[in-house]
Hints:
disordered N terminus, globular, 4 helices, YaeB-like fold
Amino acid sequence: MLPFWGCSHFGRTYTDRVRVFNRATINKYADEHANVRSRLHAWFHEVEQADWTGPNDIKRMYRSADFLPGDRVVFNIGGNECRLVVMVQYRAHFVFIRFVGTHSEYDK
């Protein structure tokens, strides 16, 4: 993975790619739910390569994404087998994974 931010003093360069935090949350859920494992990992890798500057960029990639207050986004993974809720910091190019679970877990 390329560094998300840096300066020439440390030999790094700036990139607009998104940095995803809490990969362990996805890995834990994927280990317990093999039916969506490959789709969760595919989502993670797609997002790492993305350059999201606002909700329209997300909507172009994921038409079924739903937007909540506080820059939160809900993704339906695996044909609605689970939901993934993230908080996006567009200017900093950060995505924080807030929740991964079934629809019934999400509804609680």
